[in-house]
Amino acid sequence: MYEVKVLKKKSRHIKKFINLEFKLYKGDKNWVPPLKSDTKKMLKGKGNPLAQNGEYTFFMVYKDKKPVGRVMVAIDEELNRVRGFKQGFFSMFECIDDEEAAKALLDAAGAWLLEKGMDRMIGPLSPCNGDDRKGFVIMGNDGPPVLLNAYTKSYYPKLVEKYGFEKNDDHYAYIFDPKEFNIEKYVRAVEYAKKKGGFRVDKLNVKDIENEARDIHRILQNSVPEEWDYLVTPSLEAVISEFKNLLPFYDGHYCYIARKGDIPIGFMVALPDYNQVLKHMNGKILPIGWLKYLYYKSKIKGARGIVQMVDRNYQHLGVNYAMYLEVYKDWLETQLDFFEASCIDETNLASRLGIERAGGKHYRTYRTYKLDLKKKFGLEQTS
Fold this sequence. Notes:
Elements: E1 2-7, H1 11-24, H2 36-43, E2 56-63, E3 66-74, H3 77-83, E4 87-95, H4 99-115, E5 120-123, E6 136-139, H5 156-163, E7 166-176, H6 183-197, E8 200-203, H7 209-221, H8 236-246, E9 256-260, E10 263-272, H9 275-278, H10 289-297, E11 302-310, H11 319-334, E12 338-345, H12 349-357, E13 361-372, H13 373-376
Parallel strand pairs: 4-5, 11-12
Antiparallel strand pairs: 1-2, 2-3, 3-4, 5-13, 6-13, 7-12, 7-13, 8-9, 9-10, 10-11
Helix pairs in contact: 1-2, 4-5, 6-11, 7-8
């Protein structure tokens, strides 16, 4: 009844993989269609540094010869080398509400990883190490996702938990209402912190993006927690590539780097919520998608803080509050209705506390899962 097939990295196979998502979410008012052309390039490895870190493949499950589910499975060899793991991950999981269909997909993914010498599978993660496909939504699935965040079926956690997956970690999204921000309080506090700590906050210089990316890479090297089992500091080349990919969305607001003298000590990257544009484009730029883009771009009323990091040696200086203040000034200029900060690892207590003290309200949670492959497939050593 169920048949699982391996899809090759050919255009027509990738097209089938992408199109299944459009069929499953048809009619869902909260789903934001991804751009098919960008997704195709990413899945074929073009401009995707993670694709260079190890092997990956795609599976599709059929019921009565009709596709009903898909999954990507991959190995991040760089992460495994640095962390000493034998870990693979799954991504882009989509499936009808059918335990047998999900089991067929996950069996195929797990068997593939075992064959490659892996002993653990986690997911869902992004196929390019971002947030766009990371986690299933377990809280706050009643609205559309903000730029580069996941949106998933409400029954997905049930499917993977029934299969045997356990919670790996949660990531939180916080929402800010600009009207509730006490700017006078923060102006005084931030000016004092900057003077005492001897640091400043600079707006991202897009005319010197490679040097800006080098400074951000340096901050990442001194801020990514060791306990994060899904991420190691990306290479400088990967950081430069990612910033160049994001530049078309940058409108001159919400991106800042904190420096103490010539030393970069913190950064924040936020972008307008272009999901409010993509929602109307049905995954296509042509023939009239670009016209919709230009029309809806001026109507964006939100932004998302994608990442904020502070060098662990300078986290006591109030650098994050100084960057929040600059973002709030941008709010006043752009007159947005909301700002989302995400995704914050549940173990990142310093960031969570800073966001909550600045007025952020936890309104959405994304969960990743883990599976012991040897236990699942009965390959544990017995005494």
